[in-house]
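Quick note —
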Amino acid sequence: MQLKDAGWYAEHGIDLRTGIDVLSLDREAKTARLSDHSDLPYDLLTLVTGSRPFVPPIEGSDLPGVHVYRTIADLEEIIKASAGKSSAVVIGGGLLGLEAAQAVQSLGLSAGIVERAAFLMPQQLNEDASALLQEKVEDQDIRLFLGKDSTTIRKDDQGLHLDFEPDESTNCDLVIISAGITPSDHLALSLIH
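Predicted structure written out below.
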């Protein structure tokens, strides 16, 4: 999110570079190696690297029709993939998972949510508060699979199948994974190894 135009940064002595990744850091030389093959010197370094979607170790999570829900690019892929489809299941019953379910509904698909905890938004709500939320979500015709751990995603001529323990499954056209985030900490970790 760029809050000022490029000219503002130059006027204030800020060297703004966009679309370039930091590949490595050399603490002794105090330089950052960039993806454009240049080195950027620094006196003081602050790492603000963001995060990436957490994808649980589910067999089949790399199949066509399985998407993550995190960035605008992810949303654009989901919109394209939803053309001609009728249903989606979201893995993850947190805030973004609820948002993802509503998003696919707005695309005209039926929606379901799979949450491994026994209630929605287990990181933010207690069971009583979640029960109130569950009523609202079910009133929006979103199917809930609570206390279910997705073990496998399979694909066949009928679409995608999510298998749960024990011997339970659901079918859909798209699977959207919204199971949390993982810090993009590879640069920081490279400094301590």
